[in-house]
Design goal:
heterodimer; A: 563 residues; alpha/beta; Helix Hairpins; Rossmann fold; 4 domains; six-stranded parallel β-sheet; 20 strands; 49% helix; elongated; B: 126 residues; mainly alpha; 4 helices
Chain lengths: 563, 126
């Protein structure tokens, strides 16, 4: 008979069998001690209360040995023992107690074995994943970015399963404060079996997020997922252009390069501060206020960085025609930079060489948190009016970066998490963000003013969500549209007739056409998807209205009456 | 020679021989069925079961299953014997017949066990 290839991991073996294998010898010892004890009691003659010879039956013998071995000790039942019996009972007592101690000791040593615990934990993990009834995403790598992303998604009720190879990170994930009990696997996400155990083939798996620190592992995760479950989308982090090209060559859905995102954000902040502020509010669920654009001074920028980070920033600044001076310890591989200063930027002389007194700001983006802090503090001493940007590499450095005098902190993990979040939360959001990049500043400013004018509760949090005008998702609006046209202005009102504190940022039609910033008079069609931005109470109210045609009609009447 | 294999085979065969010895005789005649032999058969059968634990092969699983069957049959017989002898007070020929037939069932399971053991042994290349 040909053997089928083993596809089940060794870790799924039932722990009870492993336990029993370890307990073979103690069990045999226990059985033998009991058997010999019972046999002895049955064979040794006893005496009843009349002085007659009396033989203990097997039933009684087993009873006596049982209560003696377990140290319960009911005494000499049914008749007092003879001396010969007492002699034998001495043996029974010690032998059985020792046998029990041996057996219990073996059980405890197996149970407290770290490998056994790990095995049991993994089994529980696999069982829990298999019985999951809600959609989930697999997050590979619980570093700074992974942890942020899991938290972002949890705020919107999106569940994650985490894989990490580092025990301290696994513990951190398990102990994290989330609204649900998170499932964490300890293992190498690059191994296909670990991905399968984490549920990549589960019908409710929505996608795999390859967010480990190593490009090669992310690449392996992506290829493995493609083969194991081709329907499952892969979102991968990539820190090299070669990895990005490789990933895109086999149609990985989303490839995110944190350096490119960072460079894009910096350019956006300098050239279009309002669009930048709106972007940040949309992609970061922890920012809940109306965005305030940063005040960026005019002048050239000093970029202190090295390696790929510097290359990406220089490339982006050149394209956007932003004046800059680079301070880098090594020349860039992509070519020479005019006016480059050799050094780290931590010394005042290098900063002066880069004309710090006329600079608009400094971007401290070296891979070392200590250097970044030093650069920013030195720069501030040289020119107090500078706009200070510091890159934070490790999440553990957060306290200093949060307390320091920085105008902007580039948190590498958070940048990646925000970008992934924007893609996962709603496909509309990403489409809107692409539109936002080419939008003129006055339009974006006008948009923010319009939302400010509509606000009813200045304390309320600002959030965004998407709606679909289909028969299933919005039966009320669907019925309405079958009879008469529905404009955006008619849709965005409260059942009591007042205007909802929300705006529509983008409409995507069934044909794929995009309509950014539609006005109140925009006529909606069935199948339209709308990205709504406004106070957090709007979502439930709008949901209610969309479901009921009578409420929608009632709202229009009240609106007409109040006008 | 592997000592572990010796003990393994010893207990499996011993379980069968003791079981057979107890079973042999007129089915309802208590004089033909020794209680000590029965006790030994039960103990040896239990030990054989413990020794079979942990073999992950297919034949190991079947060996363990046959042993568990034999244990259940023998324990049922022991309970029946103990109950009729101690609680009712006498072992009637009908009860004895039941006890022996239960032990006979256990013997069939033990025979299966030995056949599996032999077939596995014969497959081994010298």
């Amino acid at each position: 008979m040909p053997q089928a290839p083993r596809t089940v991991s060794i870790k799924t073996a039932t722990p009870i069998w492993l336990l029993l294998v370890e307990l073979r010898t103690p069990l045999v010892v226990l059985i033998l001690v009991y058997a010999i004890s019972v046999l002895g009691l049955v064979l040794i003659p006893g005496m009843d209360d009349q002085g007659q010879v009396w033989h203990v039956s097997f039933l009684h013998a087993f009873y006596i040995v049982s209560y003696t071995g377990s140290t319960i000790g009911f005494g000499e039942i049914p008749y007092p023992f003879t001396d010969a019996q007492r002699l034998w009972m001495l043996f029974v007592l010690y032998a059985s107690v020792i046998a029990w101690l041996y057996a219990l000791g073996s059980v405890l040593s197996v149970l407290s074995d770290p490998a056994f615990k790990q095995l049991q934990h993994h089994r529980r993990f696999v069982r829990r994943i298999q019985s999951l009834k809600v959609p989930f995403w697999i997050v590979c790598g619980y570093g700074g970015a992974g942890a942020e992303l899991v938290r972002f998604l949890a705020e919107h009720g999106i569940r994650c399963v985490v894989i990490d190879g580092d025990q301290s990170r696994v513990d951190a994930a398990r102990l994290s404060e989330l609204p649900y009990e998170i499932d964490v696997a300890h293992g190498d996400a690059g191994q296909p079996q670990v991905l399968v155990d984490a549920g990549v083939t589960h019908p409710l798996c929505r996608g795999v997020l390859a967010m480990t620190d190593h490009d090669q592992i992310n690449l392996t995760i992506a290829t493995n997922t493609r083969i194991l479950a081709s329907r499952v989308p892969v979102y991968s982090r990539s820190e090299k252009d070669s990895t990005t090209r490789n990933l895109l060559s086999f149609d990985v859905e989303v490839v995110i390069d944190p350096y490119r995102i960072m460079a894009r954000e910096m350019v956006q902040m300098i050239t279009k501060p309002t669009a930048y502020a709106l972007y940040q509010q949309l992609v970061d669920p922890t920012i809940c206020e109306v965005p305030m654009p940063p005040k960026v001074p005019a002048g050239h920028w000093i970029v202190c960085s090295s390696g790929r980070c510097a290359e990406t920033l220089v490339d982006a600044f050149r394209r956007a025609e932003i004046p800059f001076r680079l301070i880098s310890p090594d020349p860039l591989r992509t070519g020479g930079v005019a006016g480059m200063v050799r050094g780290l930027g931590t010394e005042a002389t290098t900063l002066r060489e880069a004309a710090i007194s006329e600079a608009a700001g400094v971007i401290a983006a070296t891979p070392d948190d200590g250097d970044n802090l030093s650069i920013v503090l030195t720069a501030q001493a040289e020119n107090p009016a500078l706009f200070l940007v510091a890159r934070r590499n490790r999440p553990t450095s957060e306290p200093v970066f949060a307390a320091g005098p920085f105008d902007l902190v580039l948190r590498m993990g958070r940048i990646l998490a925000q970008e992934m979040y924007a893609r996962i939360r709603s496909p509309l959001l990403h489409q809107f963000l692409v539109q936002l990049e080419s939008m003129p500043e006055p339009l974006v400013q006008g948009l923010i003013h319009r939302l400010q004018g509509k606000r009813v509760n200045p304390e309320a949090q600002i959030t965004h969500f998407s709606i679909t005008l289909s028969a299933n998702a919005a039966p009320g609006a669907f019925d309405w549209m079958a009879e008469q046209p529905l404009t955006l202005g008619q849709l965005l009102i409260d059942p009591d007739g007042s205007t909802l504190p929300a705006l529509c940022l983008l409409v995507v039609r069934l044909t794929g056409d995009l309509v950014p910033f539609p006005g109140d008079g925009f006529v909606l069609a069935t199948g339209d998807q709308c990205l709504i931005w406004g106070e957090s109470t709007v979502e439930s109210r709008l949901d209610w209205m969309l479901g009921r045609r009578d409420l929608l009609a009632e709202a229009q009447h009240r609106r007409a009456a109040s006008a | 020679m592997n000592t572990q294999r010796v003990w393994f085979a010893f207990f499996i065969v011993f379980a069968l021989t003791l079981n057979f010895g107890f079973f042999w005789g007129e089915i309802d005649n208590p004089n033909h069925h020794n209680p000590f032999e029965f006790f030994l058969a039960l103990v040896v059968s239990l030990i054989a079961t413990v020794l079979k634990i942990g073999d992950r092969s297919h034949i190991g699983a079947v060996l363990l299953a046959t042993s568990l069957v034999a244990d259940i049959q023998l324990i049922l017989a022991a309970v029946m014997w103990g109950y009729s002898a101690q609680v009712i007070g006498e072992v009637s020929p009908a009860t004895m017949a039941s006890i022996v037939s239960l032990a006979g069932g256990a013997m069939l399971a033990n025979v299966t066990s030995v056949i599996l053991l032999l077939s596995e042994t014969l497959q081994l290349k010298r």
